[in-house]
Amino acid sequence: MFSGQVEFEPSGQNSKSQTLCQRFEYRGCDFELRSLELDDAPELFARVDTNRTRLRQWLPWLDDTQTEADASRFILRMQARAEKNQGFAVLICHAGAIAGVIDLQSINWNNRTASIGYWIDQSHEGKGLITRAAKAIVIYAFTTLELNRIEILCATQNTRSQAVPQRLGFAYEGTLRQSLCLYGDFIDHELYAMLKQDWQNRIGKQDWASLKQDYL
Questions:
Q1: Cα-to-chain-centroid distance, residue 161
Q2: How far is residue 98's CA from residue 68's CA, in Å, rounded to a whole number?
Q3: What would the pLDDT profile of 172-216 be if each residue is shown by its tens digit?
Q4: Separation between Cα atoms, residue 148 and residue 215, nearest integer Å
Q5: Where are the beta strands (DSSP E) in 68-126?
Q6: How far apart are the C-alpha atoms of 48 and 95, rounded to whole Å?
Q7: 12 burial class (0-12, 13-18, 19+ CB within 10 angstroms)?
């Protein structure tokens, strides 16, 4: 299960939200989301390498991730992105092991929009980890970061990835034709989006107030 998106620089920043991207962490009953550290590079690379063939069907960066040093460089890039308040990536951990990565990227502070991308280790599929991780990030984005729109792009043939926004109630907004060049081939993406007001209506005003208290 994985979602890939094209990254771009944000057009601006919200001064109220400075450095908030640097400290996102979440602990559920049987999993946690935590920041990437350089010490995670060996295990992260091993997980990528084990899943290389299946991830390469949908994600464009596999050929650039050949060594632990490449994983270290990825971690440093994600840390730099967080320091600039342009987004963040966190590890999805289950039973103490790295199960995947999920990120909030392409933050546009002027328009208060962002997108979510993710991938999961095959042995951890079917546990609902991506759905719960995405839900936690959506709540954080709408409450603490005060964003207004969150998008998830999934390759047209990747039905497992599409199931995540569908479960969370994201609206399907159409197909982006040939939106990604993947190892020389152009692939289509399905666009799903959630607005803050729709999320509020979905969970109810009382629950929304509680969530704001928890995540602010």
A1: 12
A2: 15
A3: 999 999 999 999 999 999 999 999 999 998 887 667 677 766 654
A4: 16
A5: 88-94, 97-108, 113-120
A6: 18
A7: exposed
Residue with tokens 């998106």: 5
CA separation, residue 206 to residues 7, 83, 135, 201, 213 (Å): 35, 33, 18, 10, 11
What separation in angstroms does the CA of 149 have from each of 8, 84, 98, 115, 140? 16, 20, 28, 8, 12
DSSP state letter for 57: T
Enumerate the β-bridge partners of residue 101.
Answer: 91, 119
Instruction: For the beta carbon of residue 203, count every other beta carbon within 10 angstroms.
Output: 14
Phi-psi sector, 120: left (phi>0), alpha (psi -120 to 50), beta: beta
At 14 the three-state DSSP class reads coil
User: Tokens representing 11?
Assistant: 């057009």
Distance CA 110, CA 13 (A): 7
- Report yes or no: 126 and 163 within 8 Å, Cβ to Cβ: no
Phi and psi at residue 60, in whole multiples of 5°?
A: -90, -5
Q: Which residue has the tokens 């190892």?
A: 183
CB–CB of 191/151 below 8 Å?
A: yes
108 forms beta bridges with 113
Q: What predicted TM-score, i.e. pTM, was given to this entire model?
A: 0.87
pLDDT of residue 26: 85
The amino acid at residue 5 is Q
Q: Alpha-carbon distance 64 to 60, whole Å? A: 9
